[in-house]
Amino acid sequence: MIYEIRQLMRYSYGSYVPVARHLMRLKALSGPSLDVMEGEIRIDPAPAERVDAVDFFGNGITHFSIRAPHNVLAIESRAVVDLKPLAEIAAADTPAWEEIRLSAFSATSLEPHSPVHFLFPSPDVPIDDAIRDYAAHSFSVGRPVLDAAIDLMRRMRADFAYDPVATTVMTPARAAFDLKRGVCQDFAHIMIGGMRSLGLPAAYVSGYLRTIPRPGQPRIQGADAMHAWVSVWCGEDAGWQGLDPTNAVRAGIDHIPLGFGRDYSDVSPLDGVIVDAGSHSVAVAVDVAQRA
Prior knowledge:
By secondary structure, this protein is of the alpha+beta class.
């Protein structure tokens, strides 16, 4: 499936910023299921310095600096990608979750997608007793790990409300859990925290959803913006399996991955340092269309 992706980000500052340094994560990289056919990122004002690289987890990153006064930063990202999802694994055929827990804690590999990196607390995902107790209801003794994770995902979809004004990008996972509402970032952090608290590896995936659903399919939450979902490690044979707790679906042909990390802090689209004396705002627009 070939998709054309366009993302616009516009930061408006309350005063002129004399100098800025940023780290951007909007560059799609080819992987086992994703072939990047075209890609371009435009930055206005033009950076005085720009360096493209790849981080530890394999995400495309761009360091850039602007050394001229500006009160608007505009970033346009365009890409054409070919998504070929891997064969879907039957949930009931995955190992028991206790076996996965033992296997993960016994792993010795430190390669980027090794489960050992996704077992412990991370900046945006602490281990929380209340979230652990909520998740534990899905993980009965001997239950296949993916079957249990899908059950947790579906319970979250039933118990939590999608509400784009209830939280912000800075809202802690526990606060969103107590509210029982939020957006994809919140739901991903809650699910990851619940699984890690049980000793199961879970990763944060950022990416895109197709803007227009397939014929006969309902529109899913999170389109027209960057999206987030969870990747659950299901053992050496099944590997990492994507689950979208916002929509209670397995990640597939509608989910286009961009970044992979421990939580949002590893894949946030733009970090940086500026000097600004007033308030500032950001506007983001995303369009994902299937190429005819």
